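Run log, item B.
One chain of 189 residues. Sequence copied directly from the ordering sheet:
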Amino acid sequence: KLMKLQKIYKDKDVDIVLIQDKCVAIIGYGNQGRAQALNLRDSGVDVRIGLREESARRHEAGVDGLICLSIKEAVRNCDIISVLIPDQVMGDVYKVEIDPYLKGGQTLLFSHGYNIHYRVIQPPEFINVVMAAPSGAGTELRKRYTDGSGIPGLFAVHQDCSCDSEKIVLAYCKAIGLTRMGVFESTFK
């Protein structure tokens, strides 16, 4: 039986404008959060950082020139919410500080599928749920972005209420530098 080759999406295949007119909230400012936020910003995307009030990362984000909000303010005021906090706390943070503030048409983005696949997080039907997963650490993602190259990655669409979530997640992949090397479609599993 012949296997069908999967399309590898590169920069030329993706329109970054789809994300440049949106505001992206990065929830968390650790290894992936910082790298993705800085790459998005450097790609012309409006970025906000959502952190708990007591987070020690607020100072670092400010030094990097990014605007910090509470998590719920970031969710209320942004079009795309990229949840980049550790799996072990993600479910609780989602229930208290993200889910109650989601509104129709927003996109919830993850960088891996654990919490969706295992139904720790069960988003409402009125939002997009997508994944943009770099195949490497945030430090490497940032380093390769700044040197003009990139790292490969995966993308997935779990829920598509807007009928353009694949284009949105691909634009996000381009803005963080993944389509420089190439991304291909996967699943949250």
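Observations after the first pass:
- The chain has a mean pLDDT of 96.
- Strands lie at 23-27, 46-50, 67-69, 80-83, 107-110, 128-134, 153-159, 183-185.
Flagged for discussion on Thursday.
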